[in-house]
Design brief:
This protein is mainly beta and about 90 residues long. It has two helices and five strands; from the N terminus they run αββββαβ. α2 links the parallel β4 and β5. The longest helix has 6 residues.
Length: about 90
């Protein structure tokens, strides 16, 4: 992961995290507080998972923007380890 610190600390950079929404055992990977070592703090702008897309709103939290095909807001709430807001124009993607 060489260069990650340069990317997250660069002015006007946009950091997008792509990941699976849950671990292999089904537990949430998106949590209220991080439990792993951090490269940067409060530097992520968007999280894209296999289930949905969240925008990270500074000092507010997550905003659900898009749902993957077959997902619902309730299914995302059940598989996410923190609270989030839902955009008024949340879209379903295929």
């Amino acid at each position: 992961m060489g260069g990650a610190m340069d990317l997250v600390s660069a002015p006007k950079s946009r950091v997008v995290v792509t990941m699976t929404h849950t671990s292999k055992d089904g537990s949430p990977k998106i949590l209220q507080e991080n439990t792993l070592p951090l490269t940067g703090v409060q530097c992520v702008d968007r999280i894209i998972t296999d289930k949905c897309v969240f925008d990270v709103i500074p000092n507010k939290g997550l905003l659900l923007r898009e749902l993957s095909y077959g997902q619902t807001v309730d299914s995302i709430r059940a598989s996410t380890g923190c609270s989030f807001e839902v955009a008024s124009d949340v879209a379903e993607t295929y």
